[in-house]
Structure formats: C-alpha cells, structure tokens
Amino acid sequence: MSMFEDIPVDVGIIYEGERIRWPDAYVELGGPRVEHKFELVKVRRPEEIEDGKTIIIGPDIKDLEKKSYPFGIYVEIAGRELEEELEGVIERRIHEYCNYIEGMMHLNQRYDIWIRISKRSVEKGLDSFIYIGKVLQRLFKSELPIIEKIQITFITDPEKVKEKFEEAMRTYEERDARARGLRDEEVDVFYGCTLCQSFAPTHVCVITPQRYSNCGAISWFDGRAAARVDPKGPIFMIEKGKCVDPLKGEFLGVNESVKSKSGGEITKVWLYTAFGYPHTSCGCFEAVAFYIPEVDGIGIVHRGFQGTAPNGLSFSTLADSTAGGRQVDGFHGISIEYMRSPKFLQSDGGWNRIVWLPESLKERVKGFVPDDLLDKIPTDKQVTTIEELKAFLEEKGHPVVKRWEAMIEEKVEEKAEEREAVRPLGVPLEAMISPEGLRLAPGGFRIILKNVKIHAKKLRIKKVEK
User: Fold this and answer.
1) Which of 48, 84, 394, 398 could pair with 44 as two cysteines, CB 3.0-4.6 Å apart?
2) Residue span of the structural domain in which 464 resides
3) Residue 408: how many CB atoms within 10 A of its CB?
4) Are 388 and 425 in contact (CB under 8 A)?
5) pTM for the whole thing?
C-alpha cells in the first residue's frame, strides 16, 4: 500500500520544479505581496507535542479566496537524537517536501516563503492543509528517522502569523549569531547543498564558515550537522583542497566537487567575488549584488524590496539575471548573513565597493558596515537615478570615487602609449604622428598601437615593389 494512498493528488520527486503561474493558481500563500510569512522548526520534549497532529489556525484552503495571504508553517519535532542545531537543516527540507506534492509550488525559505496551490489540485481534492500536513509528517519521519514525533501547525490568520513571525525572526537571528566567529581558514572542509537543483540543475551551493548558503538558511554548522545525520542526502562534505587564490576564494577541492555535482557544467568557482567565476545562484537567494558600470560600484537589492534600483531595475529583473545555476559576471545571488562576513566580496573591495542598497536592508546590516562608510552609501530614500548616485558618491567622498580618478589616469596613459612609436633615424616625429595614429608615409597606411611599449635599436620599413 502506498504511503500516500489517502492523499487526493500524487506525491513524488517528479513534481519538484513544477511552476504554477498565477492564472493556474487557486491561492497564493506568502510571496512578495505580503509582509509576514515564515516557516519554522523547533525541537521539543516528547511530552510537549502530539505525534501526527495537524493544527490549522485561520481559514483552511477550501475557505480561501484567490489572493495572497500571510502564512506560517510551524513544525515541532521530538526525538532522542535531535538537537537544536538541527532545526535549520530540517526546516530547509520543508521546501523539498512541499514540492513533492502535485500542484504545490514552494519557493525560498525562512521569512521569504512563496507558495502557490493550483486550481487543478484543489479540484482533485487538495482542499485542506490536513493533507499537506500528512505528507510532510510522513516524509520527515521516513527520510529522517531521528524524528520520532512531529506536529505541524498551518497559520493563515493574519494576526497569528504576525505574532509567530516575530518569534521566527528572533530564532533566525540567534542561529546566525551562533555561527559567527569561525573563519574559513580554520577548517579543513566546507559543505555543499543541492536542494535547489530541481529548479536550477547546475547550481551547487558552497557553504563555508564565512559564507552562508545563498538562501540564508544553512550555516557551516548546519551543514556539518546535516551531513552527519544524512550522509547520502543533499547536504554533503566538500574537502577544501589547496587554496589557489585566498583573495578571490578559489579552492581546488571546491572546484572538483562543484564540477561533479553540476554534471560538469560549472568547473570553477570564486567564493568571494561577483566577477570572473562567481558562485552560482538558484533563485532562493535573499539578495542580489549587481555591478553598476556607470560608477564602477556594486549595488545590492533584497527580495522584499518593491522599488527599483538606480539603474531602473527591480529585484525580480535583477534576480532573473543571475538565477538558474548560471555564472554571470557582475551578478551574484547572496544571503544577507554573508553581508555580515569579513569575506563579503573581499576581492571586489568589500564594503568599499558597495554604492547603493535599500534603506530597509541597510538598517538590517548597519552594525556590520564600517562606521566611516555608513553615511557614504546611499539608499532608495536618497538616490533613485544614476545621475543622483554619481553626485551623492562624489559629494560624500565614497572610496569608489578614487577608482574613478585612477581610471581617468589610466585612460590618459593609454592615450600617451598610443602615440609612442619608434621611428627610423632622420624622420621627424611630427612627420609620423597625427591625431589619428602613426603614419609611416604620406598617402600610405597607419598603425595604431594601444597599451604597447616597443623597444628596438632599429626599425626598417621597406616597400615591396610589384
């Protein structure tokens, strides 16, 4: 007998990656249109929960209209081998298991969850959270036997969601704070995660002590705990191997692992930069770092931001530029916790290269922005266009302005080098050089030299007679 015989829709890995467009949706839970949404796992004592129980606070699926609702999934687990450090790892599995359900799309994590249930599946009978609760409970206990008891609560009542949301945010911060302090140089192994390959087949998340998973849900300690509990699961150990470039963050062991797990599509990853071979992204990242060529700086926009960056682009547009497991020069999906790391884009200049971010995001990370830069990085409340951005950075003396000066000097040098050429003895320089380049003979041809210095004792040019 199937484990899901009493579920009105199919359940299986084949439904991972299923996209439900708005016209095909019955309802949307969480997502960008609502402020409060979360999923949270807490370890409890066995006597505190009832195994197999599903609680619904607020309207059930069949009682919801077609719109976006504040939403919370609250999972409580118990077991002799369960520890608090496993909460984040088990929490991330909600994403995977929800996507096993036919007609249910689950994106993102923590306080960014975005769920849609299709009209077709509701018509087939998926009209209650009771069914979703049963699927999650059975999958968790089947794949993670250390979970002996599990109780799940679904919340659609807006006030109750808001209340639990505050608890969830405190829990996330406590977990993140525990993981700070350990340095990448102090460990021999990193961890990898392929949970999102159903949406981005070539994406492999590399998790280090100083670089959280892109989704912001898994720290190095979480990775270690997950790999011990489920050695054959989607979170696994990566031997660092030789460090080829400590500034960019290139490790031979990481390259080998990523190549293997991406089916050979990604062969090299630089962990601490948005350029060259940036870390891949799936789509569940919390924020996007993006290059702004007009000021030679980097902007950052997070998932909750509803406006547009100075370059006129929204989060969704910028996210599309880096999602799907691709390496796109100058676009980089990141976690917000990574912005608190000393390794944060260190090869690109770190915070000295950041030139814009939304005010709400700046407020969240301001304790980790160098004091002398805090007032020099504008937000959406101060700057909305490239022209305004340039003026602000120049007025405040942002470090990136010195890069502009260096670039101007470099261009002047390039122009000078273009004019440098060795000429035959007896030929005046002014006879050879014009504003257009190097002329070797009246009515003849021109050679333009760029970024080249030529040293020769003699230059002989002979005209070949027909």
Assistant:
1) 48
2) 420-466
3) 10
4) no
5) 0.76
